[in-house]
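TL;DR need structure tokens for one chain.
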Amino acid sequence: MAVIGIGVDVVDVDRAEAMLAPHRRRVLTRLLRDDERDYIFRMPHPARHLAVRLAAKEAVYKALQPLEGSRRIGWRDLEILREPTGRPSIRVHGVAVEVLEANGGPTIHLSLTHSDRSAVAMAVVESRGP
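>> reply
TL;DR here they are.
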């Protein structure tokens, strides 16, 4: 397998906290899918989980940039999941599905971390074969 792209992003938890204010929650509909919103609001510290999801989406978007058509991918085309083991993963929708299929269906690897102050995500996109 060959690396196609690498992306990294950092989001301040305070910035995410501001997005959770009642008058700003509409913006979450543009950035997150329903299951992602449900997940973050079930957590004891929703801002940390929001911040890391935003960082993850941006990191994946950056890692996909070498692929033809990737600039059309939107926030809701990328869904950040947590596997039962705790490992993060991504599910693609809409334009992201089209882009990945048109480019041989590469694999996306994701690593996330967060503290009280910041969230960091790293994504690696790898081709599936020669």
